[in-house]
C-alpha cells in the first residue's frame, strides 16, 4: 500500500468556462430550479470543512508503482474531493494482491472506499452523496431532472469496445448516445447543469476519458468532429486542474480495458 496526503487544487471550476471557445448559442435555456434535500440519509454529520485529511482507498497503477490506477469511479470520488477543496490521504492498493486489511473493511475487496465519521463507505454513488451532505459547500448537487443526462454513454461504449462484429449496431448505439448528449449541450450547456459544473459532470467526465483512450487505442476510433459541443465539453473538463491531477495515465487505461477486448 502506498499513502500520500493530497491537498486539493484551489482553482474554482467556474474559471474553466473561459477556456471554452464555442458558438454563442452555447448558453443555458433552461432555468435552474432549486434543489431539494435528498430524502435518504446516510447518517453523516454535516460540517463545512474536514479538519483532518479523509482516508481514501484507491486502485494502484498496474504499470507504475505508487501511481493512481485506472478506475473512473475512483476518479469521480477524487474529483469531488478536489472540487470541494477537501484534503485527503490517498491509500493506493494493489488489487491483484489484495491485502488483508482491505478485505477486513471491504469483504469484496472493491475500491473506492472512504472513511467518514469512523465508518468505511464503499461505492462512488454512495460516497459522493455522503460528501455532498456532509460538506455542502461548494455545492455540486445536480437537479434531479438533469442527473441522468449522458448516463447511457458508458454502457454503450463498453458494448462497442467489446464488439468483434462491425455490423452488430454497437457503434451506432454509441453514436446515438453521444449525439443526444451533444444536442443537450448545445441548448443547455456548457455543462450538464448549465454554466456550473456539478456531480453529474464529475461522474461522466472520467468515463468519457476512458472512452477516448480505449477506443482510440483498440479501434482507432474517435468522436466525430461534427459533435462540436461534446468535443468542446471534453476539452474543457479534461483540462481542469482537478481532472489532470486525478486521472490515470493512458497506458493504465489501455491495460485496464485489455481483458474486455481480448476476453
From TrEMBL:
rRNA processing recorded as keyword: no
Superkingdom assignment = Eukaryota
> Do you know which PANTHER family this protein is assigned to?
GLUTATHIONE S-TRANSFERASE DHAR2-RELATED (PTHR44420), GLUTATHIONE S-TRANSFERASE DHAR3, CHLOROPLASTIC (PTHR44420:SF1)
According to its UniProt record, which protein family does this protein belong to?
Belongs to the GST superfamily. DHAR family.
Report the residue ranges that make up the GST N-terminal domain in this protein: 61-139
A Gene Ontology BP annotation from the UniProt entry? L-ascorbic acid metabolic process
Identify the stretch annotated as signal peptide in this record.
none
One MF term from GO for this chain? glutathione dehydrogenase (ascorbate) activity
Which UniProt key words apply to this protein?
Detoxification, Glutathionylation, Oxidoreductase, Transferase
- Gene3D superfamilies recorded for this chain? 1.20.1050.10, Glutaredoxin
| Reaction(s) catalysed by this chain's protein | RX + glutathione = an S-substituted glutathione + a halide anion + H(+); L-dehydroascorbate + 2 glutathione = glutathione disulfide + L-ascorbate
State the protein's name: Glutathione S-transferase dhar2, chloroplastic
- Which species is this record about? Castilleja foliolosa
